[in-house]
Amino acid sequence: MTAPRERYDALLFDLDGTLFRGGTALPGAPEALAEAAGLGCRIGYLTNNGSRNAGQVVEHLRALGFAADESEVVTSGQAAARLLADRLKPGDAVLVVGSKALAGEVTSVGLTIADRAEQAGAVVQGHSPDTGWRDLAEACLAIRAGAVWVATNVDATLPDERGELPGNGSMVAALVTATESEPLVAGKPEAALFDEAVRRAGAQRPLMVGDRLETDIAGANAVRMPSLLVLTGVSDAAALLAAPEAHRPTYLGADLTALRTDLDRLRPTARPPWRASRAGDELRLELDPDAGPGLAEAADPIDALRTLCAAHWAEGGGRPARLTAAGPTSVAALHTLGLTADR
């Protein structure tokens, strides 16, 4: 058996929805990372949340039980500051819509902070729960006047213990509407965070681990990096089934226990005793009728999802799947996955 923590020399982790939700570590996550590090696997932390600097990210991770170091953290705020520095002159002023930590990243690359639109050669926008209408209005004026506009990320939502909350992308969307412009994007799925994390880790065989198809997985695919999707955050089974090819992970796991699971088991392929077959536009899930009672009772719903993905994607995928189920075990598996059979 070869598990991800044994095959890959660096594991690059998304944070929210992968390692924790809000202020709570996901069950078993600190232990899974400690075990991987104990086997010599290098760890990297990639976050699209630009509201915290690397030191604050490490403080949060350590409080939740993760043995993190600042050198392992790459934030979208850092990447955004680099994009600005590449396009502006030292000392140029930037209007910051976001946190004090994001402003700190801007000044760390030799730029200054603008208080008003008229002073700004650029706007940088990152998540902050304190962003209000006046902040967006000032940014709107600057962007309409020709300021460079950089967004740390365009994640529509961010996961919290209570559910999905508006993310930076939702606030960016308001300015897209108001300015009829589009920002440069610093975070995932763009390559900057991935390239920097690989460089810091000195990795030859990195693996991206995340919970969001359109950022974590799509970004990894874009830089030709293998990826593991965990179903602990934003993207669910229905989204995975409907994913376009560019958003499909190399491996699929329920959670970070996948790091100690055989790689062949994690691939989205047909997994006995599950079978998936097509009848017109229907995708039918059933147990192999020759499977014995013990094998049927132990059938894993995540294996059922891997089997469904393989069958649906083989027909092109990229659209919602109309599912049917044969028998109560198949119905129960779909229910566990948050999927519903048509009949």
Summarize the structure in words:
Strand 8, helix 6 and strand 9 (148-151) form a beta-alpha-beta unit. The strands form five sheets. The chain has a six-stranded parallel beta sheet with strand order 5-4-1-13-14-15, sandwiched between helices. Strands 7-6-8-9-12 form a five-stranded parallel beta sheet, with helices on both faces. It folds into three domains: 4-48 and 189-264, Rossmann fold (3-Layer(aba) Sandwich), CATH 3.40.50.1000; 87-184, Rossmann fold (3-Layer(aba) Sandwich), CATH 3.40.50.1000; 269-336, GMP Synthetase, Chain A, domain 3, CATH 3.30.300. The chain is globular and about 75 Å long. The mean pLDDT is 93. Helix 4 (76-87) crosses helix 5 (100-108). It is α/β, with parallel strands linked by helices and 343 residues long. The protein has helices spanning 4-7, 29-38, 54-63, 76-87, 100-108, 133-144, 168-179, 191-201, 213-222, 237-241, 263-266, 293-297, 301-314, 328-336, and strands at 10-13, 20-21, 24-25, 42-47, 73-75, 93-97, 112-114, 122-125, 148-151, 157-160, 163-166, 184-185, 206-210, 227-230, 251-253, 274-279, 282-287, 322-325. It contains 14 helices and 18 strands. Helix content is 37%, strand content 21%.
Give the helices and strands, then pairings.
Blueprint: H1 4-7, E1 10-13, E2 20-21, E3 24-25, H2 29-38, E4 42-47, H3 54-63, E5 73-75, H4 76-87, E6 93-97, H5 100-108, E7 112-114, E8 122-125, H6 133-144, E9 148-151, E10 157-160, E11 163-166, H7 168-179, E12 184-185, H8 191-201, E13 206-210, H9 213-222, E14 227-230, H10 237-241, E15 251-253, H11 263-266, E16 274-279, E17 282-287, H12 293-297, H13 301-314, E18 322-325, H14 328-336
Parallel strand pairs: 1-4, 1-13, 4-5, 6-7, 6-8, 8-9, 9-12, 13-14, 14-15, 17-18
Antiparallel strand pairs: 2-3, 10-11, 16-17
Helix pairs in contact: 4-5, 6-7, 13-14
